[in-house]
Design brief:
There is one protein chain. By secondary structure, the chain is α/β, with parallel strands linked by helices. Helix content is 22%, strand content 33%. The protein has two domains: 229 residues, Rossmann fold (3-Layer(aba) Sandwich), CATH 3.40.50; 130 residues, Nucleic acid-binding proteins (OB fold (Dihydrolipoamide Acetyltransferase, E2P), Beta Barrel). It has eight helices and 22 strands. β2 and β3 form a beta hairpin.
Length: 379
Amino acid sequence: MTVLHPSSASSAHLAVEAVSKHYPGQTALETVSLHVERGRYVVLLGPSGSGKTTLLSLIGGFTMPSSGIIRIGGQDVTDLPPAKRPTTTVFQDYALFPHMTVAANIEFGLKLRGLKADARKARVATMLELVGLGQHGERSIQALSGGQRQRVALARALAVKPEILLLDEPLGALDLALRRQMQDELHRIQRQMNRTFVHVTHDQEEAMALADLIVVMSHGRIEDMGPPRRVYLRPATRFAATFMGESTQIEGRIHGQDGQSITLETEIGLLRGMAAPSSGAMTDSPADTQGRIWRTGDKAVAIIRPENIRTAPESGQAMGQALVYETVFQGNYVRVFARSETGQTFVLHSPAREVPASGSTITPHALMDDITIVPAQED
C-alpha cells in the first residue's frame, strides 16, 4: 500500500485515503493515500499508464473509485459528481466554446452558478487581468494563439474560485518556448491566488519548474513524493531516480552501515553513499530514512546524478578508470559517456571547455553526500 503524509490527515486540504480503481482485468490505481496542505502546487508525474490521470480524474469526480475516500477541505466528496465538487479542470485541449468571445467563455461557469450580471462582469475583468488578457475580452476564441487559449481556459477555471484547480497536461500542445513561458505564468498565478493546484505531466523538467510537491507514479502506485530538489537529488527508489533524469547506477550489495552512511560492495570496489529517504520524505535528513531496514548482503544500487561526477582527484571517492566512448554537446555542458573494464557505464556533465576526448581514459569521482543508495528491489 502506498501511503504518503506530507501533512496530517486532519489538516490536509486534499485527502485521498486508501483509494483504488479497478477495471475488468486491470488495476489502474492500487490503494493510494495522499494528504496535501492548502496552497500547494502538486505535480503528478509518471509515464503513460502510471495512474496519474486516473488519480486526477478521481479527485475531480470524473471517475468513481472502487474503494477508498476522497476529502476536500474536510468534506467527503467521494460520491459527488464534478459539478458538485469544489474543483475545476483545465484540459490539454482547453475545451473552449469557439462560438463565444473570450469574456463569454470565462463568464460561462459564473452564469451556471447564478452569479448576478454585475458581479460576473467584475469577476471576468479580474480574471482577464490576472492572465494578461485585459484587452482581449471581446475577441473571438478562433483569433487567439495557443498560449492565449490556454490562458482563457485557466481564467475560466479560476473564475469560479475552486478549492482545487486540476490541470491535465495543460501545456502539452505548446511549443518549447511557449511552454516555458506558461510555466512561469502558472507559477505566478498559483502563488498570487494561493490555491491548491494538482497538475498532471510526464515531463520531469516541467514538474521541477512548477511543483513544490512532486508525486512520482508507476503502475498505479506512488513511488516517491517530496520537494523537487529532494526527489531529484535524493530519490527514494530506483524507479524515481530513473524517471527524474539521467544518472549513473552502480549495482552491488550492502557491505556495512554507519548511521545513514551505507557502504556498497560493487564490481568497481567499495563505494560509500547516503541511505535513500523513505518514500514521502519531505527532506533528506536522517530522520526521513527511519522507515528503511538495510541488511548486510542485500542488493542495492548507488545513484549518482551526472552533474555530481567529477574527474579531479580531490572530488571525492575514485570509482576506477573508464574509457570515454561518446560525447554529446548540450549547449552549456557536454554529456560524457564512459565505460569501465567491468562494463560499468558512467554519464557525467563536463564544461564545454574541459571535454575529455573520445578514446581517452578518465577516473570518475563522487562525494559520499552526492551518492544515494536505494534498494535494488522497489518497496
